[in-house]
Amino acid sequence: MHPPKTTGLLSKSVGRAGPLSIGRLAGKGAWTGLPWVTVALMALLGGVYAATSDTGPVRVDTLVRWGAKAGPLVTEVGQGWRLLVANLLHRDLAHLGLNLLVLAVVGTAAERTLHRGDYVALLLGSALGTMAGSLWWSSVVSVGASGMIFGCVGALLVLGRKPRGDGERGRYRWFSGEGALPTVLVFLWLGWTSAGVDNAGHLGGLLTGLLAGTVFSPRERAGDVTWTSRWLRPAGVVALSLGVAVGVTWEGSGWHVERDEGFGVAVSLPSGWRREEDAHGRRSFSNGLPGLGRATFSAEAIEAGEPGDGEVQARHFLEDELIAGVPGPHGQVRSVSGPEAAMLGGRPAQRVRAEVEGGAGATSLRAWFVPRGEWVYRLVFTWPASYPAYAAVVDRMVAELRLEEPAALREARARALLVPGAVGPLRALGSQLRRWGLAREAVEPLASAMRLAPADVPTRVELARALFESGQVEEGCHAAAEARVYGPSETAALEAGVRCELARGDAVRALSRLEEARAVDPRDARLRAAEAALRAALDVPGP
Fold first, then answer.
1. What is the pLDDT of residues 243-274, one digit of tens each?
2. Which of 6, 245, 342, 456 is the one with CA 20 to 30 A from 512?
3. From CA 494, how far away is CA 182, in angstroms rounded?
4. Single pTM value for the model
5. Domains of the chain, earliest start first
């Protein structure tokens, strides 16, 4: 599990930042009065940390539960409030203490320099700018108040360059003295070169503060305060920051299409989802969260060798991975239902529903099994039960999933067009059509190939299978009989006769044909398994 990105690095060099030192602040005799907003904010930060750590060490899941910036939960589930709340959370006591120390210095300076309404707007705007910058750069979990501190520093840097008269120039100039800007740059550089520091958030807070500093003015005499400076400017700063946050969230909430050309599957995924492999080596995608809030999609093509049966594979899934009350690869199974008939990608499917309990809490699971020719696609979606809004994300993924033409079938079509009238391309096209569940469409190219090469046994066998699978039993039996005429000792031709008897419903004659085929090739494991299965179905003992 990766630790959340934090924003506490700022505080490590406070003692060397001469322009921002407490001693210089104390020397400004004109600054009087308790900085109530800063004190209240510090108390709030401490209280929130006490609440989050009440049950033990603050872990990533704890932070996510309390409102950390977790990109997928903002852009996919719509929890935009996290962009504010994340500024109040801290990873550990050291992280909190360092930020409180710097906030006591920089926040006090900003509050005593600005009108309190402007200062509150600066904090809100910087908080939004911090997490908007973090979200724009990365979707990982991020928390901390140092982005607001950077916002205060940015505002003070600009305000220090705003002389209000000869007497006031010196009073504010120290904010942007020779040591202030290099100190900020050093903090940013340390953040970029250190692990676990969300410097994009720092930069977002700093830029918000610089912008606010160009709009706000230092405290003025009461008679000089206008309605515009008292209300419109701070409201504008907050509105602009909110607009940026909404824009970044909107940009991150896009979708993209992932395609598997080999199996012809196209699925729409949220733009932030990452490709990975699950515990069984299957191709999968996830929203990137390590624990609480994690959502996944995995896909697997199961080769059946015969026209696939989705219900059979669904029941295998239930028996192997979703046994009620037993821990499985997805967690402790709390409830399970299915399989039930459904539709997916415009094709009949079987669906399984389950609720499982894991280390990150309850998880909802939906699995679809879609037969397609000799394959069955197993598509599994999971999402956190704690965030039921994620069900709508999964519903969209399911609704927009498409089954397209696989690459092998497209290539076979192209070869048949490029070399018209050739036996090989026609047979290959018919074989691919049949394998991907288009048996009726496969009959024509296979019949054309058979007319061009009547003695070609593999073509006749493929044609017989296509006819059987498209429901043309007698025509298929005729093709199987002719295949045996041209290849009396070929296993494929004998097997076609077995399929004929099974298609006619005569299992006893099918077993007899299987015994003939086994006599020709006794080492064929597939025929041996078919014979054993048929004997078991007929309750006939082995030889």
1. 999 999 998 899 999 999 999 999 999 998 98
2. 456
3. 85
4. 0.81
5. 22-251 (1.20.1540.10), 255-403 (3.40.1000.10), 407-538 (1.25.40.10)
